[in-house]
Amino acid sequence: MTSDQAPPRVRYQVTYAVLAAAVISFVLQQTMLNPVLPTLQRELDTTQADIAWVLTANFLATAVFTPILGRLGDMVGKKRVLVGALVAVAVGSAIAALATTLPVMVLARVVQGVGGGVIPLAFGVIRDEFPPSRVPGAIGTISSLMAVGGGIGTIVAGPIVDGLGYEWLFWLPCLAVAAAAVGAHLVIPESRTRTGGSINLVAALLLSSWLVCLLLALTQAPKWGWGSPTVVAMLIGGVVLLVVWITVETRARQPLIDMRMMRLRGVWTANVVGLLFGAAMYAGFAFIPQFLQTPESTGYGLQASITLSGLVLLPQSVVSFLTGLASGRLVARFGSKLVLIVGALSCSIGFALFARFNDSLWEVSIIGILMGVGFGLAFSAMANLVVAAVPSSQTGVASGMNTNIRTIGGAVGTALLAGVVTADLQPSGYPAESGYTSAFVLAAAGLLLAALAALLVPAVRRDPITHEEPAAPLRHPQAGTIPGATLVGDGRE
User: Fold this and answer.
1) CA distances from 459 to 147, 340, 389, 462 (A)
2) Which residues form the Major facilitator superfamily (MFS) profile domain (predicted)?
3) Residue among 169, 435, 398 nearest 283 (CA)
4) Which residues is 480 bridged to in the sheet?
5) What are the residues whose beta carbons fall under 8 Å from the beta carbon of 13, sequence distance 6 or more?
6) At residue 195, does pLDDT exceed 70?
7) Does residue 239 have a pLDDT over 90?
8) 460 in helix, strand or coil?
9) What's the rounded mean pLDDT across residues 120-141?
10) Alpha-carbon gap, residue 41 to 53, rounded angstroms
11) Mean pLDDT throughout 142-164?
12) Which distant-in-sequence residues (6+ apart) come within 8 Å of 205 by Cβ?
């Protein structure tokens, strides 16, 4: 294994451009469908309940493949796996564009979900190839692209469908991802740091099983009922499989996800914050456009079109991206912990304000700016905390699990808040305003909890020139030494 302390190779700026294109292309194919599901429902001649599987299938595939591809990239080379993941997204997008039935569309979305590994692989490439002083800023900006991509997807979906047809919601990402795959193959150097070994197939199967049980139960509970035997059985089964998976991973000689790594205080605290952030962010992407598009006849709706509601949220996406660009300097000056706390508080205040001040589009847009600052700060800080807390050989799987936990949080938050929003329906079939208000207050409370959880994040000692953590091995009372891990806090994680 070659040391990750070797001098970085040239053209890291070009590498960064390719990685950014890959991440934004993947996120766009995830989010552009949210505001146009009714159009897909009509085109595929299916029901409102069944069309939700277009989102659920992608959610499940992303949750399953993200940590697996992160681990595979650490083992055999991040470039090779990154290119493969991008090719899978392109193939899935092409199948979706040609789909004329719901089962084919769902299959295509599963194939697209394989690309979830793009995000942890991008973090791993940055750590391998960039100068140490550039790593925090690059990771911060890439992280902010996840929030930016969600906003852009909401903005462009309406004009694409109106001008070109819904098929181009898939053809455009297909072309973009294919170009990113070619760029990655030509530009990105192969990893110098590899762990070797093999994929633990039993652990992968167990991981897939408990995630499928959990996410299926959470996404279908509003439809089937939280007390239905099927939902209860899946929740219990998910918990049992989770316990079995943890046991298998703890005892395995070559675990898919190193449980010693997951017990690092810098990792598990970032994951708790990520779970809460994912719940609020994905719920916001789902319900704020719906709120804006509600007819004025309900007494509270603003009756915005799909395109207009996206434009209202455009400042949030722009500010989130700009904040991500500046996050590297902020992390270097103030530390990831403080940046994370400020980001969580900013988002919490934004949701609280949105619950109260939502009578006009300009109010929503201004509040969105505050939330954009919070998302940009928090996502970059979380990514940097995870990358700093683990050895470079485990960057992919650690950051992949953090991304995965945000996905799980998104499923939990969306399912729970959907129940809150639809608990009281008007005779017209639209939710009462109180449902939205309660949902946004709960999102604000969840983000306040995220800020409190961030207080548990250990302080990281950084080199004043490179802003890197010292490369001392990290010892655990029961797990021994993890070679190459960085020392965070007081080392008692």
Assistant:
1) 26, 12, 11, 9
2) 15-462
3) 435
4) 476
5) none
6) no
7) yes
8) coil
9) 78
10) 11
11) 76
12) none
Distances (CA, A) of 169 to 25, 94, 159: 11, 10, 10
- Helix 336-356 and helix 265-293: axis angle, to 10°? 20
Structure tokens that stand for 23 in this block: 């991440």
* Residue showing tokens 């599987």: 53
Separation of alpha carbons 242 and 219, rounded Å: 18
Flag whether pLDDT at 8 surpasses 70. Answer: no
pLDDT of 191 above 80? no
In angstroms, the CA 187 to CA 473 distance is 33
The mean predicted confidence, pLDDT, of the chain is 79
Q: How far apart (Å, rounded) are the C-alpha atoms in residues 369 and 140? A: 18
Phi, psi of 102 (to 5 degrees): -65, -45
Terminal Cα-to-Cα distance of the chain (whole angstroms): 27
* Of 17, 110, 114, 151, the residue nearest 400 (C-alpha): 114
What's the DSSP call for residue 9?
P
Residues forming beta bridges with residue 129, ordered by sequence position? none
**Torsion sign across C-alpha atoms 69, 56, 291, 431:** negative
Residue type, 138: A
Provide the residue type at 449 as one letter.
L
**CA quadruple 186, 192, 193, 199: dihedral, nearest 10:** 50
Strand partners, 475: 481
| Percent of the chain as helix, strand, coil, to the nearest 5 | 75, 0, 25
Structure tokens at 167: 């098929």
Token code pair at residue 336:
């990831």
**How far apart, in whole angstroms, are the C-alpha atoms of residue 413 and residue 221?**
12
What's the pTM?
A: 0.72
Q: Identify which of 275, 242, 287 has the alpha carbon closest to the alpha carbon of residue 408.
A: 275
Encoded amino acid at 353, one letter: L
